Amino acid sequence: MFAVHRTGVRVLTRCRQVLRGSGVFSFNHVHRDRWVFAQAARVPTGSRVLDVGAGSAPYRKAFAHCEYRTQDFTQLQPDQLRHGGYAAIDYVCDADAIPVADASFDAVLCTEMLEHVPEPIRVIRELGRILKPQGLLILTAPLGSGIHQEPFHFYGGYTPYWYQRFLPEAGFDWIQIESNAGSLRFFGQESIRFLRSTRPFALRMPLPAELIWAPLWLLAVPVLGVAIPVACAILDRFDRDKRFTVGYHVTARRAGAT
């Protein structure tokens, strides 16, 4: 019996690992990670890079060819971080007051952090201050997100028009904005979220309601958990408007002499 239990645990663990690495079932993280690694490869060897809001520093390896430094305010709990626990942080401070001289870095990375700061425009200005002329900003933030990492969650997300308005004001030009997939991928993600949120006994409903809902939930799993996410992944390429994307990936250059 114990051996059977251990085998079941291993199978479930392996399934979770496969799903977390799936471009269909976990596309948000997978696409974002792939994009960040691609941007990191463009940064010249030996460049000074600051990861702002680094947390557990999941992109340290992407910048192994650079002089990589980290910044964070380090006030979240380990279970609030994607990879659990903070990495070694070089600058423990607020993101709008980083204790370095002007033009200190060749590149700045800032991923999924802007929604967690009270004054994001001040942060953008600070990133412009610490970048060298023609320095590269690599930035991601959600368009829409549920409350997380509370109580440090202040904004639902950022549109392309926000970046187009405030990045130039902070001294950036050559601004490139691309969505993290389209609306249908977003819908597929929310279909999976629905299943996770309503799994039997997760809602703590009265027992009669749970007994009615449990078989209905099981019947819905193949449709909501497999068919819809797969269909959304296939059809997403035909979405032209992309008005409900999960977020945007942004690159920009600090204006100044070449």
Using the coordinates above, name the CATH class of the largest domain.
Alpha Beta
Low-confidence stretches: 1-5, 7-18
CATH architecture descriptor name of the largest domain: 3-Layer(aba) Sandwich
Question: What's the story with the biggest beta sheet?
Answer: 7 strands, mixed
Query: Helical proportion?
Result: 25-40%
SS summary, helix count: 6
Q: H/E order of the elements?
A: HHEEEEHEHEHHE
How many independent structural domains?
A: 2
Beta-sheet strand percentage?
15-25%
Query: Between the first and last Cα atoms, what is the distance in angstroms?
Result: 68 Å
Q: In terms of structural class, how would the helical and strand content be classed?
A: alpha/beta
Shape: globular
Task: Give me the Rg, rounded.
Answer: 21 Å
**How many strand elements?**
7
Widest beta sheet: strand line-up: 3-2-1-4-5-7-6
CATH fold-level topology of the largest domain: Rossmann fold
In round numbers, the mean pLDDT is 91
The CATH superfamily of the largest domain is identified as: Vaccinia Virus protein VP39
Give a verbal description of the structure.
The protein has two domains: 26-181 and 242-254, Rossmann fold, CATH 3.40.50.150; 184-238. Strand 4, helix 3 and strand 5 (131-142) form a beta-alpha-beta unit. Helix 5 (183-197) packs antiparallel against helix 6. It has 258 residues and is an alpha/beta fold. Mean pLDDT is 91; it is low at 1-5 and 7-18. It has helices at 2-20, 27-42, 120-130, 160-169, 183-197, 207-235; strands at residues 48-52, 67-72, 91-92, 105-111, 131-142, 172-179, 247-254. The chain is globular.
